[in-house]
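Subject: sequence -> C-alpha cells, single chain

Hey, anyone have a minute? Need the predicted structure for the following. Not urgent.
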Amino acid sequence: MSSPVKIVIIILLPVMTFYVGAWLIDNFSRHDYVEQRLQRQLSDPGDRKPLNTRYCGYDAPAVSRHWGALDQTALQAEKCSLRLDLVFPLFYGAAFLASLFLAWTSLGSPFHFSWLAAPVGIAVLADWAENSLQLMQLQRFIDEGASGLQQCCIRMASAATVIKLYAVWAMIVLLLILLVWMGARMVRGR
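Reply:
Had a minute. Here:
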C-alpha cells in the first residue's frame, strides 16, 4: 500500500468512526429532542453545553440545571444516549489504536507502542467511568430530583470527563505527529 493511501486511511479511520458513532448515538437516542429542549429552557450557553464536552468539568448544581431543563421524554433520551455511549469508546478507541499502529509500523516501530496506546486506554476507561457515573446519577435525578444527585459521584464523573477530553486530544496530537513524520519521510524519499 502506498504511503499517501496509508495516510488517508490513518486519518479517515478515527474521523469516520467518531462521526458515524456520534450520529448513530444521536439518532437512536433521539438526542436532538434533548438539544431542542435545552435550547428552549436554558438561556446560559454554558448550561446548554453537553456534560461530556465540558473541558472545565461540572458540579452538582450545573448538572441539576442541565438535567432540570429536560422533561421526562428528554431525560429518557439522555439515558438512552448514555447507555449507547458505554459501547462507543470501544469503537473510537479501536479506530485510534489501529491508526496509531499503522502509522507507527509505517515508521518502522521507532519506540515502544505503549506510548501511543496509553492515551487510548486512558480515554476509553475515563469515558466508561464518565458514562457509568452519569447514568447512575441520571437515574437518581429521575427518581428523586436534584436532591438525589451525589456530589462525590458528580465530581468523579466530571474528573473522568476532563481526563477523557484531554486524552482524546493527546491521541489526536500523537497521530498528527506520526503523520507529519510519515510525510517528512515521503518527501525525503525514504
